[in-house]
Amino acid sequence: MKKLEVSAIEEGTVIDQIASKSTFKVANILDIQNIDQVVLVGVNLSSKKLDKKGIIKIGGKQLTQDEVNKIALIAPDATLNIIKDSEVERKFQVAIPDTLEGIVKCFNPNCVSNHQVIQSKFHVMNKNPIKIRCHYCERHMGGDDIELV
Amino acid sequence: MVMLKNRDIISILDFTKEEISYVLDLSKKMEEQSHTDLLKGKILANLFFEPSTRTRLSFETAMKRLGGDVIGFDDPGKTSTVKGESLKDSVKIVEGYCDIIVLRHFLEGASRLTADTVNVPVINAGDGASQHPTQTFLDLYTIKNTKGGLEGLKVGFLGDLKYGRTAHSLAYALTHFNAEMFFISPPSLRIPKDYIDQLKSRGITYHEVDSLFEIRSNLDILYCTRIQKERFADPVEYEKVRGIYKLSSAVLDDLKLGNDLKILHPLPRVEEMDESLDSTDYAAYFQQAHSGVPVREALLAAVLGVLQ
Q1: Which residue is catalytic, options B42, B56, B65, B132?
Q2: Any idea what DSSP says for residue B84?
Q3: Whether B56 and B138 share a structural domain
Q4: B111 burial type by CB count under 10 A (0-12 exposed, 13-18 middle, 19+ buried)
Q5: Is B248 found in the same domain as B238?
């Protein structure tokens, strides 16, 4: 039996196949410092798919759709494993939706979305590499410009 | 078949070639014939959160020439905005008073937000450095009238191509008509990469140069823009490029860009274009400003569904 580099959890979610350099960004999205259940984080782990991968295991937590969408933007190769009774109940790869609402901040300081109390909204023009267009000011943003709300 | 009834006019990016051509044909009809009572009983709300002369007055003229009425303001300092009212609340109130909203705002995307908020049609009369679609329609209309068509023209864009929304929108619209484009600006005011990417994806031939003297080709149109002081966060950066281009009748003769060249400018002009040009055959910018009325008449009539 293969030895696990990061211990298993009985219930919760495992985010696997995170590009190693993005692991702590994903940890920030999930606000792990404020979770009172077990959280296990591994970085620079060997991976067939990625050069080096990260993994985060969170006990007792189901991710929200907003969290999944944010992870898809930061770590498009990530997979989610829903764990129940120490078994993988469901496994799926994150996917970037066609429209992103309320999860990315427009980088244009003069965009109306940064001045009025409204949700930001972006249309996804290209998923890999990521390119999005602000619904309001029509500015285009790429990977390095993307700042999560 | 093109249907513009109840359509918001927010960005030139929302329009197909067929729709653009339709608006230009309708504008010609509006210019050639009087339509006195076409919009009788309709009310336009002109909401100008930023200064404007041509756009505001030509919308007002267009509406009145078609028999409609106009309400609105051009000084937001006298509105509830100063009490902290949100844009969404302001336009929700106004939609109950009118049949159509024309909005100019200093925030980019303000017109899209307004269109998402209200049920009456919204026309963007300029939002920050972003879009000004009715200006683009009247620019195209002027080019078509002066050159006899829009296909395959050689068009130069001169001046502030970084912040100049009219140049951005016109360049995009001209991709429908296979124009060859020449962008003439100092390196600090180059056209943004987003727009260059759009040209590339549409297979448009384009050139970027610092000076008009680097152009080795006749041009059909030279679209001049003012270097907009109000768009610069740093006044030092503005002073570096202020007055960098000064077109005059003598300069144009030296340049040898072709006798059929027509010069357009969205106006107001400051230092970039000398009055000596006004009496030459190159000058088409006053004709361009006057085109604002028939083009806006066409858009108002089409959007309010009284003319198809």
Answers
A1: B132
A2: T
A3: no
A4: buried
A5: yes
Q: Do B100 and B139 reside in the same domain of the chain?
A: no
Q: Provide the number of structural domains found in chain B.
A: 2
Distance from CA of B194 to the nearest CA of A (A): 7
Q: C-alpha angle with apex B34: B31 to B39, nearest 5 degrees?
A: 105
Contact A110 B108 (CB under 8 A): yes
Q: What is the pTM of this model?
A: 0.89
**Phi, psi torsion values for A13, nearest 5 degrees:** -135, 140
Cβ-based contacts of B130 with chain A (< 8 Å): 137-138
User: How many Cβ atoms sit within 10 Å of the Cβ of residue B271?
Assistant: 13
Q: What is the pLDDT along chain B (308 residues), one digit of tens a residue?
A: 889 999 999 999 999 999 999 999 999 999 999 888 999 999 999 999 998 888 999 999 999 999 999 999 998 887 778 788 999 999 999 999 999 999 999 999 999 999 999 999 999 999 988 899 999 999 999 999 999 999 999 999 999 998 888 999 999 999 999 999 999 999 989 998 888 998 999 999 999 999 998 988 899 999 999 887 766 677 777 777 777 788 888 888 888 888 899 999 998 888 888 899 999 999 999 999 999 999 999 999 999 999 76
Domain that holds residue B205: 133-289
The partner residue sitting opposite A115, judged by closest CB among B11, B107, B194, is B107
Which stretches does DSSP call E strand in chain B?
43-48, 69-73, 100-105, 122-127, 154-158, 180-184, 206-209, 221-224, 262-264
ipTM for the whole complex: 0.88
One domain for residues B205 and B100: no
| Residue contact B113–A112, C-beta within 8 A | yes
Angstroms from B41 CA to nearest CA on chain A: 32
User: Chain A interface, mutation test: which of B130, B132, B191, B230, most A Cβ atoms within 10 Å?
Assistant: B130
- Answer yes or no: do B158 and B120 share one domain: no
Residue B83 a catalytic site member: yes
Give how far A114 is from chain B: nearest CA, Å: 9
Active site residue B104: yes
Residue A119 structure tokens: 């949700």
